[in-house]
Amino acid sequence: MSQERLQKLIANAGVTSRRKAEDLITQGRVRVNGRLITELGQKFTNQDHIEVDGVPIDRDPKVYILFYKPRGVISAVSDDKNRKVVTDFFTDIIDARIYPVGRLDYDTSGLLLLTNDGDLTNHLTHPRNQIEKVYVAKLSGIVQSKDLEALRHGIKLQNRITAPAKTQILSVDRRRQISIVRLTIHEGMNHQVKEMFNKVGYPVVKLKRERVGFLTLQGLNSGDWRFLQHEEVSALKKL
Fold first, then answer.
1. Is 112 found in the same domain as 99?
2. Would you say 56 and 49 are in contact if contact means Cβ atoms under 8 Å apart?
3. Where is the RNA-binding S4 domain (predicted)?
4. What range does the domain containing 146 cover?
5. Which residues are marked as active site?
């Protein structure tokens, strides 16, 4: 049986991403066959007994889910305030320990992927891969194209300059003073979309993520989900 780096085995078991698995190792939270491992680079097999924080890792078959997250749900596997989390929708359906790929804010709805594949998670969230995420925002105020020029060139946000975004004004309601705008980005900073629109003077009233890469919400209503097809998983890994 082939050997793999310990952080990869942990990530493949769905515990966390590979980068965070490295942190777990260096923090002294991982044991293999009863031995504490704190140095990166050591290799083991799936036959070795691996524990994280004293809990044996699962070696479940890989699971890939496309979920239409409703508003009012936390993008996490648990919440210290006992609010509903995305994995609550799958507790009685899926035995594998899945987790969300990235996150959507509590009051943001839309497309969210869940999996136990750490390699895919790392691939989809790493900035170098520039995987597009498309949002539709309801904004306070009447937006004109020139107002969004800064977003198309990049603005200073969270001590860095954002990558150029694509914008499209879908509609405006002058009576209600509301605009609907589509925004396409490939980054994933916390609250990024809301902060981008705030920077140009248009607070977000409502936000929905409609697309990640080539995946859309077609055929799904809020709270619905489906398994990804094998061809979709393969295509995601090639993005």
1. yes
2. yes
3. 4-61
4. 132-212
5. 105
CATH of the domain at 151: 3.30.70.1560
118/173 same-domain check:
no
Q: For residue range 14-60, what is the model confidence (pLDDT) as tens digits?
A: 677 778 889 999 999 999 999 999 999 899 987 889 999 998 886 66
Give the strand pairing for 50-52 and 204-212: unpaired
The count of structural domains within the chain is: 3
pTM of the model: 0.77
Same domain membership, residue 232 and residue 165: no
CA dist 200 → 11, 23, 56, 60, 197 (Å): 39, 37, 49, 46, 5
178 strand-pairing partners: 140, 173
Kindly report, residue by residue over 56-74, the tens digit of the pLDDT: 886 667 899 999 999 999 9
3-state SS track over the chain: CCCEEHHHHHHHCCCCCHHHHHHHHHCCCEEECCEEECCCCCEECCCCCEEECCEECCCCCCCEEEEEECCCCECCCCCCCCCCEHHHHHCCCCCCCCEECCCCCCCEEEEEEEECCHHHHHHHHCHHHCCCEEEEEEEECCCCHHHHHHHHHCCEECCEECCCCEEEEEEEECCCCEEEEEEEECCCCCCHHHHHHHHCCCCEEEEEEEEECCEECCCCCCCCEEECCHHHHHHHHHC
